[in-house]
Amino acid sequence: MLTSVDTDLIRVLADPLRLQIVTLLAEETLCSTHLIEETGAKQTNLSNHLKVLREAGVVDTEPCGRFTYYRLRPEVIASLAGQFTDLAEAARATAENNVKRSCP
Length: 104
Known about the structure:
64% helix; elongated; 104 residues; three-stranded antiparallel beta sheet
């Protein structure tokens, strides 16, 4: 089953802009300037979303002069994907074995 920590991560990734950021960072490490150009988001809005992603452990930062680069932490995404895979396997087994609770 998914735990509250996992549902918090799902909520973080459910935002369309944050999901777009994560998708872009899956392809390459980018600074906030690149992310503003790619997403069209305003700098303050983007910074707030990047803060949420950092605090959730989804991205790491790397200072480079006056810029900060952002890198996706693939192990976080892989862990969540693995939990969804486990959930799907449990559902498949339930369906195959016709497991259902009797009504009172």
